[in-house]
Write a structure and sequence with these properties.
This protein is of the alpha+beta class and 361 residues long. 70% of the residues lie in helices and 7% in strands. The chain is elongated and about 95 Å long.
């Protein structure tokens, strides 16, 4: 029970690992909302600053507040636009600053400018605040509780007792409702993100090996062709799969396929994406030009040559590499075809060298 409550308050109903998987999408959604709400804040506070400057006599007390609000909105907009994408922690900071600014406006309206007429503004803000951003329930509750406590402390000092009693009850009630609504909304949003991510994973990944599938491969090639960037394409083919299936069963064949995928990921995955494109066919598409392709090939050979399985002793994989700079006239699909041809040349040499009866011993 305690663990369930902890997961709800810290991870919106998911466990820690699952929440980390959707954190990037949550940050992206918060960044988008921050940009939109910062622009709204800029317009609102900018208008108030202009109005207060024109009516200085009537707005003398509130002019510094409006200027401060405008400065905060400008700072948040610039931080979110320029730096927050690179430093996600800034998104979290700006989210809480924005929420605190909005709640502070509500408190000012409710307590300092017109406590008799405008407490309703704080109640409205309490209800709206829950839906502005993707905030973990614990953080949202702390923010709302902080606003309610500030109202109770300041309201007790500045409002008439009868009026304060009514307003305090309303603020506590609407604060509690806002907290519950916020928790429900956050759980619903995060659950939707996680469900969408699981669906994408199943659509993009090969179920046996866990690496990207042919659908993802075709999409990646199309994107590379669209961007016209340099790329290494490495084609792989697992040797002797049929022999392993015939001699040791499909469990042995599955073991070899999984080992091939792991070996490709270990040697090439840090420089790009790895795919299973067919039964025993794999591809690596490398867009990180810091790769030393000879070192990566050497690492791959070392991994496969040292591999020992539960059902078979050896892992033989042929491969071919094509580089866009070496073939400047070739499109990305032609590059893939050339890498494939190099792989088949290597495969033919392998079978010339290895007797069929030795392949899986």
């Amino acid at each position: 029970m305690f663990q369930r409550i902890t997961d709800i308050m810290l991870y919106a109903g998911l466990d820690k690992e699952a929440y980390q998987q959707v954190k990037e999408e949550i940050n992206a959604a918060n960044r988008k909302n921050l940009l939109a709400f910062s622009v709204i804040g800029l317009v609102a506070f900018g208008g108030l600053v202009i109005y207060a400057a024109i009516h200085q006599r009537e707005m003398l007390r509130t002019f510094p507040i409006y200027v401060m609000g405008l400065a905060i909105m400008v700072a948040m907009f610039l931080i979110t636009l320029i730096a927050a994408k690179q430093y996600p922690i800034l998104i979290h900071i700006c989210v809480y600053i924005y929420m605190i600014v909005v709640l502070t406006i509500g408190l000012i309206l409710a307590l300092l400018l017109g406590p008799t007429e405008r407490t309703a503004a704080l109640l409205g803000i309490l209800m709206v605040i829950a839906g502005l951003f993707y905030v973990v329930p614990l953080g949202l509750l702390f923010t709302i509780v902080g606003a309610v406590i500030c109202f109770l402390v300041i309201g007790h000092a500045v409002q008439e007792p009868d009026l304060f009693a009514v307003n305090a009850l309303n603020v506590i009630f609407f604060g509690a409702v806002s907290g519950m609504v916020g928790i429900y909304m956050m759980r619903t949003r995060v659950a939707r993100y996680y469900s969408e991510q699981v669906t994408r994973y199943l659509m993009e990944r090969d179920q046996l090996t866990g690496i990207l599938n042919r659908r993802s491969y075709e999409y990646t090639l199309a994107k590379i062709e669209e961007k016209n960037i340099d790329v290494y394409i490495v084609a792989f083919d697992l040797n002797g799969l049929k022999c392993a299936n015939d001699n040791y069963g499909h469990t042995a064949g599955d073991e070899l396929l999984k080992a091939t995928a792991v070996s490709i990921e270990q040697a090439f995955g840090r420089y790009g994406k790895c795919f299973r494109t067919g039964g025993d066919e794999f591809m690596a598409v490398l867009t990180d030009m810091t790769v030393d392709i000879e070192d990566a090939k050497r690492e791959f050979r070392d991994i496969t040559e040292s591999w020992k399985g539960e059902y078979t002793e050896h892992l033989y994989v042929s491969y071919g590499v094509a580089f866009s700079k070496d073939l400047p006239e070739a499109g990305v699909k032609e590059l893939a075809r050339i890498a494939d041809q190099y792989m088949y040349d290597a495969k033919a040499k392998f079978y010339q060298k290895h007797d069929i009866n030795r392949r899986r011993r």
